Amino acid sequence: MSKHTIVLGAGMVGVSVAWHLARRGRKVLLIDRREPGLETSFGNAGIIQREAFAPYPFPRDFKTILTVLPNRRIDIRYRPTGMVKAVGPLFQYWLNSFPERYRRIVPEYASIISMSTDEHDPMIQAAGAEDLVQKEGWLQLFRTRAGMAEGLEHGEESSSYGVQWDALDRPALESIQPGLSTAIIGAIHWQNSWTVASPGELVSRFANHAKTLGAEFQQGKLQSMQQQGEGWQVSTDQGNFEAEEVVVALGPWSQEHLAPLGYNFPLFVKRGYHMHYHQPEPQRLKYWIMDTETGFLLEPMKGGIRLTTGAELAKLDAPPAYKQLEAAEKAARELFAIGKRADETPWKGARPCLPDMKPIIGPAHKHKGLWLAFGHGHQGFTLGPPTGRLLAEQMDGEPTAIDVRPFRADRFG
Fold first, then answer.
1. Which residues of the chain fall short of a pLDDT of 70?
2. What is the DSSP pairing of strand 186-190 with strand 138-142?
3. 1-57+97-132+198-266+356-413 falls under which CATH superfamily?
4. Is the C-alpha dihedral spanning 392, 397, 401, 402 positive or negative?
């Protein structure tokens, strides 16, 4: 008997959940205040990061922390008000970055990362989105021997998780991506990660294919959700909708809408910015590249070369501050000859993070028929399709592809 499910949030995670549920014959209503793929999923670096077996730990050494305090780094900046608001989760994040705890987290996190390309692939094919996806990997660049050595050590560790990679010296790097600054001494080529020329468009195509499977989409701003008898009522500015089950996949806005139901998840955000630039002629950027020791990425996308910044620790609704992007742009122009700006204003978004670096994927522990899928940090774009599969399997009472206990909601009490 088909069930009616409302999925709240039309980013990569919510759309993937809707796609998997519709494919199983459920009647699905997807709700978002914007069209699918136009929030956080729109602005990321567009990499399906098969190599990202280890989440980003919090800096622990005193030397690194001292370099962050002046608030001038490109890879990470902060607002004092944002730090105060997130002090509890950030402290837990710091504790979980200690080696003993972090060693336990990595294999749990890697278990879902290892599903990423395998779960994206059938959705890409079904949606006819092969034209958006390149399967040639991306380049992590290094400026110092110490940085390169650390990258190689990370590469060696990644091999045990099925990651394919190659170390490139400067001549080898120049042969596949000419035009880089002479300050770059080498790179790691992450070979079985995929890149996407328009991340928001990929999400949109997934959503359109979900519609062919029977899913419906309703644009509207969420106002409330409440249990009603054996089911749920969701209220938006476009009306009320009822369903047997509800999935919350609202990314950084998830806790805001779960708080009235008595949940207090330690969700915090890392904000980020992007800007597009015209491709230089005739020497064009072919690969997605990361300037590791500086802290930004350049990606050759449909809209031009996209520059994405590192993390900004700030309140979700704080006004934009473009100094981090401006500093990244200056460094990017020294790395590669990007052209003039192609956007009128920079894009700003937020990554939803949890202090143990793992998302929540599974049932809410206080309410029947309420399911959760959020907190993916930097990897919501990568982990959307695996999340969709794992949540659909749980909702249908089936064995899951991997052990989902590390992602349960009640780990936060």
1. 1-2
2. antiparallel
3. FAD/NAD(P)-binding domain (3.50.50.60)
4. positive
